[in-house]
Design a protein that fits this description.
Elements lengths: L14 H6 L6 H11 L24 H13 L11 E8 L4 E3 L1 H9 L1 H4 L2 E15 L2 E14 L2 E14 L2 E9 L13 H21 L14
Parallel strand pairs: 1-6
Antiparallel strand pairs: 1-2, 3-4, 4-5, 5-6
Helix pairs in contact: 4-6
């Protein structure tokens, strides 16, 4: 997921307890984290309507149905309907958050418009791979664009979506296309467990601050 306001937490053996004892990180800290994760492409994206590479998903495939909802979520315009793509026990994980269940996933993405002046996926290519009966993996190679204090910050990402029986069961966002740090991807398992606990603690605090996944009020046009 995209980056959120709660981007720095001191490591501790029990992440949730440590978070209660520390102040929430600042937007300045978020800016520094995003800056470190940038790759070597321009940080001044064309905001004047210039064309960006957008390879559509295969017609009639699952990706064609799911992608519009993901673009809404990363574009800070998500509604409750966009999260209907997930199974009830789906997970979402990026370098900052580890969400379990649809309500926590909502909290992760409802945070974006409260933090950034702008957020969106500006370029993407999509690949859809069957992995078994009723199972599909969707890979979205993309570039994400954010504005912090009016300054553009861009990063490359690989979004990995696991779908079973038409519903998303796992959603990972690999910044700079690097696997998430966990006990299976780092050389020192304890460090991997600590990374997992820190992301989990960040998610729990974000979830509380965002009203436990409460949907924003919908606006209706007077008749």
């Amino acid at each position: 997921m995209p980056p959120s306001l709660l981007c720095r937490f001191t490591a501790a053996s029990t992440a949730a307890r440590s978070l209660l004892l520390q102040p929430a990180p600042t937007i300045a800290g978020l800016w520094a984290l995003l800056h470190r994760h940038r790759q070597g492409f321009s940080t001044a994206m064309d905001d004047g309507g210039g064309s960006h590479e957008k390879t559509p998903p295969p017609a009639g495939g699952l990706a064609e149905r799911i992608l519009p909802h993901l673009l809404n979520m990363y574009g800070s315009r998500a509604t409750a309907r966009d999260f209907e793509i997930y199974a009830p026990d789906a997970t979402f994980e990026d370098p900052l958050m580890r969400a379990h269940g649809v309500k926590q996933i909502k909290s992760s993405f409802y945070t974006l418009p409260k933090v950034f002046g702008e957020s969106k996926i500006v370029e993407y290519t999509v690949q859809e791979n069957p992995t078994g009966p009723g199972k599909v993996e969707i890979l979205i190679d993309n570039k994400q664009h954010y504005k912090v204090f009016g300054k553009p910050v861009d990063l490359t990402s690989l979004i990995r979506i696991q779908v079973e029986d038409g519903k998303v069961v796992r959603h990972e966002d690999w910044w700079n296309k690097k696997p998430l740090k966990n006990r299976g991807t780092v050389g020192f398992p304890l460090a991997g467990r600590l990374a997992e606990a820190t992301r989990r603690g960040a998610m729990l605090l974000t979830h509380a601050l965002m009203g436990f996944g409460k949907d924003p009020p919908t606006t209706t046009t007077p008749s």
